[in-house]
Amino acid sequence: MKAIMGFSFFLLFLAGIALVLLQGREMARQNLPGAASGITGKEWRPAMLGVNPVPADSGMQVLFAVDGSIKGHGGCNGFFGTLEKTADGVTVGPLGATRMACPEVIMNREDAFMQALQSTRQFALGEQRLQLLDADHRLLAELVSAN
Questions:
Q1: Under a CB-based contact definition with an 8 Å cutoff, are residues 96 and 107 in contact?
Q2: No. of H helices and E strands in the chain?
Q3: Of 69, 146, 60, 65, nearest to 111 (Cα)?
Q4: Using CA atoms, how far apart are residues 137 and 11, in angstroms rounded to an integer?
Q5: Among the ranges 31-45, 68-82, 118-132, which has the highest mean pLDDT value?
Q6: CA distances from 67 to 28, 31, 57 (A)
Q7: Which range of residues forms the domain containing residue 7?
């Protein structure tokens, strides 16, 4: 009888943990900017970084996940970070990345991509295009759906 009762309490404990985790995930989803607007759950690749075009075969991409995480590839290194909603818009990062070395032109483009992501404070979503804007609504980068 004690074994059954102990097992029942254990199952109840596991159910409580599952409920807390699910509620936390739902709260993160509700607080994520753009979760309803279509930016999350898609891979995006930069078409422009500032005024500079980015080759379609650059290997650069970013995924804004529903849970508020970010992961992607800068053309040389993989990166990861977070996306959070703020009173004024959003914040990205800080971003972490692997530390591989590549040709200078690729590294410069990757640095510009990472800087654009970390400077993003607003999004503007159009048809298959996502603009990353700074706090003054200046265009940092234009991304296109990689799907």
A1: no
A2: 2, 10
A3: 60
A4: 51
A5: 68-82
A6: 6, 9, 28
A7: 1-31
* 36 lies in some domain: no
My answer on whether 56 and 108 are in the same domain is yes
Q: Looking at residue 133, what is its pLDDT?
A: 95
Lowest mean pLDDT of 125-129, 130-134, 142-146, name the range: 125-129
Same domain for 105 and 140: yes
Same domain, 8 and 72: no
- Is residue 38 one of the residues assigned to a domain? no
Measure the CA–CA gap between 34 and 27, rounded to whole angstroms: 14
C-alpha–C-alpha distance, residues 145 and 64, integer Å: 12
Our CA angle for 121, 40, 69, nearest 5°, is: 70
Burial class (CB in 10 A: 0-12, 13-18, 19+), 80: middle
**Does one domain contain both 9 and 49?**
no
Task: For residues 66-82, give the mean pLDDT.
Answer: 95
Give how far Cα 65 sits from Cα of 29, 43, 62, 108, Å.
Answer: 9, 9, 9, 26
Per the listing, tokens 């993003």 go with 120
Kindly give the residue spans of alpha helices, DSSP state H, lying in the chain.
Answer: 2-31, 104-119
Locate 24 and state its tokens: 């936390």
